[in-house]
Amino acid sequence: MTIHIGVLASGRGSNLQAIIDAIKSGYIKNAEIKVVxxxxxxxxxxxxxxxxxxxxxxxxxTPYKGRREEYDKLIINTLIEHxxxxxxxxxxxxxxxxxxxQPIIQLYKMRILNIHPSLLPAFPGLxxxxxxxxxxxxxxxxxxxxxDVEVDKGPIxxxxxxxxxxxxxxxxxxxxxxxxEHRIYPEAVKLFVEGRLKIEGxxxxxx
Length: 207
Prior knowledge:
By secondary structure, the chain is of the alpha/beta class. It is 35% helix and 26% strand. It contains six helices and nine strands. A seven-stranded mixed sheet has the order 3-2-1-4-5-6-7, with helices on both faces. A two-stranded antiparallel sheet has the order 8-9. α1 runs parallel beside α6.
């Protein structure tokens, strides 16, 4: 069965590009990105989608301020319209800057993946690289996890460790972490598509 992927993105979409490239090269088989959705009209992720002949959809969140569930219903409808259903779909968060509400999390339970630029559970939320530098850690990294109702707290699939150097800036550390994100996010998608992820409580076993 081909897994239908929907990607939610708010920015430049470099992780989206990594997934597009991994599917195109055959590294990820039996998967197709059916739609890319953004809450930002000028998100470069939409341009990446169009360049790859993937439907690119902007959904304006402005009329839904304070009504997150209503906005997410539009996301759900768009996903389903493009064939990303709860039984054959996978939703990827690629720099998506909105917190998902419970209806979409429940509908696509354990079918939503997110990538975060820290070794969770350390430094959840925004500006994780800045948090790591300010705390003085010697190692940081990135984490692919299942999205849950609590931000950055879903079961962990893969992590990659990145050393923190004394002369690091937020930008230099972010760039090194991003290179690892581009490596482990496609790997996690591949494992999901191949049915090799088994969830036992908070643990994700790779079969």
